[in-house]
Amino acid sequence: GNGRYLCFSKAMLAARRLLLNTVGRRTMATAMQPIEAVKAMGLAGQWRIAAHERQILEQMCEISTEELMTSLLGQAKQLATPPISEFYVGAVLLSDSGNLYFGANQEYSGQAINASIHAEQCGLCNLFHDGQKKVVSVAVTDAPCGHCRQFLAETDHGLDMRVLVSDKQPLALNQLLPHAFVPADLDNTEPLLAHPRQRLEAAGAYEILVPQPQAKDLDIALTKAIVAASFSYAPYSGSYAAVTFSLKDGRVIEGRYLENAAFNPALPPAQAALIQLMVNGATVADVEAVVLAEVVQDKPQVSHKGATVTLMREQMPNATLVYQPLQSTLSAE
């Protein structure tokens, strides 16, 4: 918006003044250190860097996009929350629009260890919820584990993405994951980021799973949960789902379920919503109500109800928790 543009313009002027002060009478061609440039532009601690901001950083630092990505891994690591492992991992993803997206590992005390989210998953969730369609490359502080290689391979043309690890030769994902098991192996021709929107509607009234006296009107959170579920990715189970958080300031944060051809790894909607909560500068203390919306089927199905209740009771015990069953209407768009 205009506010962001004005803020960005002021940040650029400040960055240029800083550069001049740093190098005295030297020319503007003198390169800045990436950390210095990021701070000067007011981008420190951010989860996303827009394409035009990325290009200016590259010009100020006289480095390539991939060099910038690896130089930003320290900032990405600072976004991690690993109370169990105390091992910090950061990731920076480049989308085909030119934007940069940060990810960091997230762990949840009191939960099963498989509730944890890896840095690459976190970054892809960030990118996906911003409407991006392809990952061009990913930089990671440490070599991606098999879990993350499988998760990244689910994306459209995912095996072509470049993987950058500090002090190592860049490789294509297909070199790190040869003979990969991918969506096409399950006859899925519309992989993650290229998948269609579903047509969903409420299947009856919602159910209050965890009541709290301070709960306010849930209509907006319920409506947004249904819409978010329609953008989720569940081609293998058909259990399209999303979680929304209704915040005290009136905002509603959404998280969409992301499946994988290997089933595990997958990204549950509650964890996706927790990631988006951080991306939007909020905390669990800001959440008043939680809505889980998921497709209910007659056949054996995936359900996020039990896992969501367990995680939310631990993370935000004072929030109302609501369950909205969904059903498909027409065929996918």
What is the H/E string?
A: HHEHHHEEHEHEEHEEHEEHEHE
**Helicity range:** 25-40%
Tell the overall outline: globular
Distance between the termini: 30 Å
DSSP strand content: 15-25%
Quickly count the helices: 11
Helix/strand-derived class? alpha+beta
Oligomeric category: single chain
Low-confidence stretches: 1-6, 22-28
Give, in spatial order, the strands making up the sheet with the most strands: 1-3-2-4-5-6
- What is the tally of beta strands? 12
* Rg calc: 21 Å
What is the mean predicted local confidence, pLDDT? 91
Characterization of the model:
The chain is α+β, with helices and mostly antiparallel strands. Helices cover 32% and strands 19% of the residues. The chain has 11 helices and 12 strands. A hairpin with a 5-residue loop joins strand 5 (162-165) and strand 6. Helix 6 (119-129) packs across helix 10 (269-279). The model is unreliable at 1-6 and 22-28 (pLDDT under 50).
